[in-house]
């Protein structure tokens, strides 16, 4: 099949970010891409559960790199072109998934980086910041909640009732590309809630994610994996400079951004209007990008 490459960098034009490379050793292969000068401070983008790196849009990666950053995105295990297990049979733990971010940094020769995590990726960033603060120059936690339990967890607002049953039922056949794309678009629409939802943009991202994946259904293994050795500590123990970014319309974790920022010493909170549980849409970038630039400049490597 011939692929037409659009001019400029679009949301799903991952080829414009440069070649796909692989980190890991032995049988483990973690696919990643980078844009920007490697001599600039590195921003490592850590995606959500079951999400390949395609859900960090290429135009967002380019916008992050433009002011002098080295932006890196990668496929979690069981997503994209990274090592993939049969659905229902993961051969790794949740701790392995967390530490894969360090494996990508090792492959790049990066000692410390600014970590930006979305949803499950936000939990991963919290865990790495707690256990490996020497590797984390700053943390940005997007559309996420606490990775460590607190005494007032029961007071956190529940998910919106509209999400009930969202993940019930069988997954589409892994060979049915159209059904897989439709399922991904429907899930993203539901998680966006009353936020800004661009169906054409989402469909482009979903199409690339499905077409790149070794098995587009294997990401469910993230739910099946054993947790592994626990991360010990509390959010009060975090000493990494932290920015919490949360959508005012997040239906999965409504109000959790405020609680998360309050639990981390010195954390700052940025609320994005018209944003749900999603990678911040372009309509928010005039607020998001300056905040990320300031956060990663203030705490950049000396």
Automatic annotation (TrEMBL):
SUPFAM superfamilies for this protein: alpha/beta-Hydrolases (SSF53474)
Superkingdom as given in the UniProt entry: Bacteria
GO molecular function, one term: hydrolase activity
Record keywords: Hydrolase
Domain AB hydrolase-1: 41-277
Annotated spans, Disordered: 76-96
Record-linked PANTHER family: AB HYDROLASE-1 DOMAIN-CONTAINING PROTEIN (PTHR43433:SF5), HYDROLASE, ALPHA/BETA FOLD FAMILY PROTEIN (PTHR43433)
Protein name, UniProt field: Alpha/beta fold hydrolase
Organism: Isoptericola peretonis
